[in-house]
Write a structure and sequence with these properties.
The structure holds two protein chains of two kinds. Chain A is an alpha/beta fold. Chain A is built from eight helices and twelve strands. By secondary structure, chain B is an all-alpha fold. A two-stranded antiparallel ribbon of chain B has the order 1-2. Chain B is about 75% helix and about 0% strand. Classes of the chains: A alpha/beta, B mainly alpha.
């Protein structure tokens, strides 16, 4: 597979020929997927297309049947979430996985608390949490000692993203981060997503919302019935074409009008365009 | 006591605003209105009860009755401390009352009928508590049986076990002086003051250290004046208490002198300090809160949730055994009703009245102490009024229901404010 947007650079994470089935159900078939540092890659597809399964394979929650993982060009194996975390892959889940009864700092460090002896080192964790939030230019969270229960949906999403960034992560995967948000909060979160990529992280954004996808992403990868039907630059496709990729798995005139160098656009039956 | 409340609910004001006492107090009021009431209902209830009973029965407000109240509340308080751990993770232990009965009976039988020294009896009782907690916790966490069912079954089974240990309904008296002292004797006046000084100094040192650490790291904290007020408040309230308990309260001092802080007070204090430290300052405690708040999130964060849940049951049953020792010592005996009848409901009530949530994720050791005092005050005051037993049950039930309603309402309130 040829990378489209930056042919010279090695993808941070590259998947080749990924297969995954649950019993008789083939969920992912021969999926290639590349993610680049400093870019937002949107992963789109209809319900059941295999987006969540793909993400869970990347994060090590699911094993895979066949396929090759390359991280910075080197082959790696990801068998469990710890492997993924060791590579710097962090996932922000749709249901956020925050504890309402804990405050922002406690949530950001949950499971990886700093200690001096057996005592929690609250002060240093608070300092680091505040630094991370300010490095992301987050001003919406007034106090890092606030309980998460008192935060709005957008602020919670911000905390969840900041939690993922805290651990020197290289690749952040966001599962529908704006699904439950209002207009203003969506804009804030998208701005944050963009800033992550601008800070040099590789970002994968799973979304159903085409406006969001076109607002922040550099590249768009479309899954259709378990197959990767397109990995294109966001600037080279139109809104309608992406919708067609999602719903029909292929577009006849994709890229021709724009004159883009498309190499990985397939029809439903796998023919190269 | 008011001063203690602010400690756990304290939150720094937003950095940009001036950080004065008034600002801090306003932030506190905002949180209370938002449903984070902490110990306010318990304190208000305690105040109303004390004033009410004192007016109707002046004898209520005497050092002698005060000295009775503390040992009366101790068994319920310690049992409630254990329940706080289980309630924190969103479970319940209905068998905790009879666990305390079984452990106390075992201890008593070992000491009185098998001539073992008191420490062997207590050790065996504690060990029994640990084993019971392990079994209950494993059934809940590993087998996935709801804790309500597991502990309800255990509630029945332990009742039978207790009957077996006390030989189908005998009352076994305790004669060991050490065991009797736990619930009935007082520490010498001088020792009381030494314990008081140690506690105040420890509290002041912990607070001072926190202020200094935060200041060194340029973190926004509560104003130093508020911290100082809290330390002084504790010193004054505890000082008045120790002074009152140090007065002679015997009717005939020439024959037997009766003064000093009851021995259960330092026992409860040690438990409060140790358990609060565990819950608030260690990773383990934080993870308990996380499991209670969102078990799935905790699991994804790599926290061993099963082990944590089992450990909460172990702590609960172990504290239940201590509660049993105190109750047995106070009653000078064990019988088939030790840890039975109202013990468990009073303890659950104490935890909930103090502000621990029945829905998991919220609770403090201090809740158990405040709630235990409220429950004991009702019991003590009503018996001074000469009320019938039925009325005492009804009133205590009503108070428990009220506390649970406040819990549910404040939970709804805070989720409503969380979304706005």
């Amino acid at each position: 597979m040829t990378s489209v947007s930056t042919p010279a650079a090695t993808p941070l994470l590259e998947l080749r020929g990924l297969y995954k089935s649950f019993g008789p159900v083939q969920v992912l078939r021969d999926v290639d997927f590349s993610v680049y540092a400093g870019q937002v890659t949107a992963l789109v597809g209809d319900n059941g297309a295999g987006k969540s399964t793909l993400v869970k394979c990347v994060s090590g929650i699911y094993g895979h049947d066949a396929g090759e993982f390359r991280f910075e060009g080197k082959p790696v194996t990801i068998h469990n979430p710890r492997d993924a975390a060791a590579l710097g892959i962090e996932i922000v889940y749709q249901d956020l996985a925050l504890c309402d009864n804990l405050d922002v700092v406690q949530n950001m460090f949950l499971g990886r608390e700093r200690r001096t002896g057996i005592v929690l080192d609250d002060a240093s964790m608070e300092t680091l949490a505040a630094q991370t939030l300010s490095s992301l230019a987050v001003r919406t969270v007034a106090s890092v000692r606030q309980r998460v229960a008192s935060l709005s949906g957008g602020q919670r999403q911000t905390v969840a993203i900041a939690k993922a960034v805290l651990w020197n992560s290289r690749l952040v995967i966001l599962d529908e981060p704006t699904a439950a948000l209002g207009v203003a909060q969506t804009a804030q979160v998208l701005e944050l997503v963009r800033r992550l990529a601008d800070n040099g992280l590789a970002v994968v954004l799973i979304s159903h919302n085409m406006n969001d996808v076109f607002a922040v992403s550099d590249r768009i990868a479309a899954l259709y019935l378990g197959q990767m039907v397109a990995q294109v630059k966001a600037s080279e496709v139109t809104h309608a074409q992406v919708v067609e990729l999602i719903t029909a798995g292929g577009v006849r005139n994709l890229g021709r009008s724009a004159g883009a160098e498309l190499t990985d656009v397939r029809l439903e039956d796998g023919d190269q365009l | 006591m008011t001063t203690l409340v602010q400690e756990s609910t304290e939150l720094p004001a937003p950095p940009s605003k001036p950080n004065g006492v008034g600002e801090h107090f306003k932030a506190y009021l905002r949180r209370v209105r938002g449903g984070e009431m902490g110990a306010l209902p318990a304190l208000a209830g305690l105040l109303v009860l004390v004033i009410g009973f004192s007016i109707v029965r002046p004898v209520f407000f005497t050092a002698g009755n005060f000295a009775n109240l503390l040992p009366q509340s101790a068994a319920v308080t310690v049992l409630a401390m254990g329940l706080v751990f289980v309630l924190l993770i969103g479970e319940i232990d209905l068998s905790a009352g009879y666990t305390s009965g079984v452990c106390a009976a075992l201890m008593t039988v070992l000491v009185t009928q098998h001539d073992q020294p008191w420490y062997v009896g207590i050790g065996a009782g504690l060990l029994t508590g640990v084993v019971i907690g392990l079994v209950l916790g494993t059934l809940v966490a590993k087998l996935g049986v709801p804790s309500f069912v597991v502990t309800l079954a255990a509630f029945l089974a332990f009742q039978g076990l207790l009957l077996l240990i006390v030989n189908e309904g005998n009352i076994i008296s305790i004669h060991d002086p050490v065991l009797l002292a736990i619930g009935n004797k007082n520490v010498p006046v001088l020792a009381g003051w030494i314990i008081y000084a140690a506690c105040v100094l420890l509290y002041a040192a912990v607070q001072l250290r926190r202020v200094l650490v935060r200041r060194r790291r340029h973190l926004v904290g509560e104003p130093a004046s508020v911290t100082a007020l809290r330390v002084i408040g504790l010193a004054v309230i505890a000082g008045v208490g120790v002074y009152a308990l140090s007065l002679e309260r015997s009717f005939n001092p020439a024959r037997t002198s009766l003064k000093g802080v009851p021995i259960v007070v330092p026992i409860v204090l040690v438990l409060v300090v140790v358990l609060t430290f565990v819950l608030k300052r260690t990773t383990y405690g934080l993870h308990l809160y996380a499991v209670g708040g969102n078990r799935e999130a905790a699991r994804r964060a790599g926290i061993p949730t099963d082990r944590l849940r089992i450990s909460a049951f172990v702590i609960c049953s172990t504290l239940a055994s201590i509660s049993g020792f105190i109750a047995a010592s106070r009653a000078n005996s064990v019988d088939p009703n030790t840890g039975g009848s109202t013990a468990l409901l009073y303890a659950v009530g104490a935890a909930v009245i103090g502000g621990t949530s029945l829905f998991g994720g919220r609770g403090r050791i201090l809740d158990a102490v405040l709630g235990g005092l409220v429950v004991a005050t009702i019991d003590n005051g009503m018996s001074l009024l000469g009320s019938r037993a039925w009325l005492r049950y009804v009133v205590t039930g009503a108070v428990l229901l009220g506390a649970a309603a406040v819990d549910a309402l404040s939970r709804r309130r805070s989720s409503a404010t969380g979304l706005s």
